[in-house]
Amino acid sequence: MPHFRPVFRPVAILAVVFAMFIHSAVANAKFVGKADDNPRMAESSSPYLRSHSNDLVRWYDWGEEAFRQARENKLPLFVSFGYTACHWCHVMQEKHFNDEAIAKTINEKFVPVLVDREQRTALDDTYMLVTELLTQRGGWPNNMFLTPDLKPFYGTGYIPPEDFAGLLKGVTDSWAQENPAVVAESERLATLLEGYLNRQQEAQTLTPALMATAAKTLSGQFDAFAGGLGDGPKFFRPTVLAFMLQQAERTGDAEVLDAVERTLQSGLNGGIHDHIEGGFHRYAIDPGWRVPHFEKMLNDQALNTEVYLTAYRLTGKHEYAATARKTLDYVLADLTSPQGGFYTARDADSEGEEGTYYVWTPEQLESALGKQDAEFALETFGLIADGDMAGKVILNLDSVRGQSVPRLDRVFARLAEVRKPRQKPVRDEKILANWNGMMIASMAQAAILLDDVTYRDAAIKAGEFIWTTMHDDDGVLHRSHFEGINDVEGELDDYAQMARGYLFIHDATGDKMWLDRAKALLTQMRKNFQDSETGDFFGTREAAGFARTKPRSDVDQPSGNGAALDAMVRFGQRAGTPDMHRATEQTIASLSGIAAGTPTSGASILSASDSFLHGQTGVVQFAGNGVVTARLVPAEDRKSLVIRLQVADGWHVNSHAPLEDYLVATKLDISGTGEAAKTASVSYPQPETKKLAFNDKPMALLENQVEITARFEKPVTGPVEARLQVQTCSDEICLLPETLQLRVALPPAS
């Protein structure tokens, strides 16, 4: 089974007709001897490519050397996309790329190219669409056959060695005997694909009603029992969950929130969650989230954490905060470099098999726990009934959801000790800018919501590492760093995600330096990638493969355009300019039709658009284009809330009792679902009385840092909304009044 990825594209978009001649014959000649170390791979900046340096297939890296070989020798390219943590990539390496007959055919009849898809995501996305269209499924390894001018004529995921040998024979026969037809078909396929990937759709007005309907429609597609989209394989789809949480907050739609919570509860209790060390595996192959593919990817840890943090803010449920903490603590313990940057992944395999580090046999449980606790563990966790993991135990809490079971704490502690000496899966220690941006954002949000300086400091250290190590003085951001080597020019989502990460560090620290760094990245992003005619963004500065395309579909992470739009919106809220505002409006207009038509793949675009059009969410918000920062801080006893206002130098907001009738008062209103919230009494700070240039009468002003406090007669539990009305003014002008809505759910006492 190939390493799946979630596919929610309208696959019937093209009438792709391609006749392949697949024969079962295998070349008789044998490839003698083991390949010497391949310096092209051995010196790569990718651990994945380095791991293939001793393959019998004599790989090239993606680049001009390989392309020249193909042109000069009139050979097709065989391009395999994979990554370190991909189980089926390892299987293909062992069974295919080190099979003498298969390797001989590839080396003689093709120019073989190996691509780390995490380094070249835009390239991988473009060619993955070919495979999805031709085979109706997608995943890794993704194996493509290209003409010397990089146009695709066939693609496939993992297939068994004997079938793959036959495929190679069919492709080589077609290339030799029907070359004009193959080339013509590749031209037609490339033209159709480029047109689809860069298509424009008529703009839609993204009204609150449209957003609410999209979220409602999505919730109806979720598994009614275990959550998640579809029946399996099960992916979290964090962009979809984040959009649904945003709309549940906007509308109070309980069904939408319930669909998200079913998913999050299944995730934190199921086998997809590592209950010993923390963190999430890539996806589950079953509807109940019990049997995962065991790789641990940094982007999954980051995006899942962000969703759990938002769910905690909206519901106040301790288990969501605990899951977020456990995931971040896992990243700090296992995926963080000494310099502060975050590593890419842990492999799925160890000791030659997938999941060996994580799973248990009944005999292993008894050896570790003793007979009685082992019987308790088997009863609690259960045995896998079928499939590759049949007869084994994958730790889960499905049978004890929501219960406090002290005996389990002892079991987990003992299993953690026994697991320590096991051979850990290989760690991919390259550092990716885009995924670091995601993790920095999650760390900084945790610092704010959980009031934990550990996460703030980790975000700062990683942010500093990327800026000083992977960002050049001329503004260029590199995508990948490994063993002191920067490689691969940054793509759209590298700039967007790092800018977004810096904006959240700014929120956590109040340090304007991070705002300035975000601005620098966004300026370079618009210069390198924005389509000046339409307003949306290309994924790369130049063509990636046969086309320069626009990433607009979320898959396992936000699309490049979704990330770019989100970063622009957030920057505009913190330091807006008329130019940024107009650019954001143009980008939304360009993307709105596609996103509204397919919300499963357009969720990140819808979320960012909603924030721009209908207001901010979260416990840190901004007024006056960033002149005023408002931070909601609940007290530990849940009997008060504080709104901390930070007003930039040279600016002020009016007091709660301005001295002139035409001035808009600063006003805090509290609402909530419980009776206690209705008892709120609000106290305002004492204003400064001053005369300003535009008014010869004294004015009552709030400047610099002030606090507004709401107190309750009894502890408050559940959702509370603080509506803050402010008017931001300087010595010369007053901006339009604004109302910020800061919502948080106060948990019951633990």
The CA-CA distance between the termini, in Å, is 44 Å
Helix content: 40-55%
CATH architecture of the largest domain: Alpha/alpha barrel
Radius of gyration: 28 Å
Average per-residue pLDDT, rounded, comes to 91
User: Which CATH class of the largest domain?
Assistant: Mainly Alpha
Percentage of β-strand residues: 15-25%
* Main sheet makeup: 5 strands, mixed
Whole-number total of structural domains: 4
Q: Strands of the largest sheet, in order across it?
A: 2-4-3-6-7
For this structure, the CATH topology of the largest domain is Glycosyltransferase
Q: Which blocks of ≥5 consecutive residues have pLDDT under 50?
A: 7-35
Q: Helix/strand/pairing class, anyone?
A: alpha+beta
- Write down the oligomeric state: single chain
SSE layout and pairing:
Blueprint: E1 3-4, H1 39-42, H2 47-50, E2 60-61, H3 64-73, E3 77-82, H4 87-95, H5 100-109, E4 111-116, H6 121-135, E5 139-140, E6 142-146, E7 152-156, H7 161-177, H8 179-197, H9 208-220, H10 238-251, H11 254-269, E8 283-284, E9 292-293, E10 296-297, H12 298-315, H13 318-334, E11 345-346, E12 349-350, E13 353-354, H14 362-369, H15 371-381, H16 406-419, E14 427-428, E15 431-432, H17 433-449, H18 453-470, E16 478-482, E17 485-489, H19 492-509, H20 512-529, H21 560-575, H22 578-597, H23 599-614, E18 620-623, E19 628-634, E20 640-647, E21 651-654, E22 667-672, E23 681-683, E24 688-692, E25 695-702, E26 705-711, E27 718-726, E28 728-730, E29 738-746
Parallel strand pairs: 2-4, 3-4
Antiparallel strand pairs: 1-5, 3-6, 6-7, 8-9, 10-11, 11-14, 12-13, 15-16, 16-17, 18-19, 19-20, 20-26, 21-25, 21-28, 22-27, 23-26, 24-25, 27-29
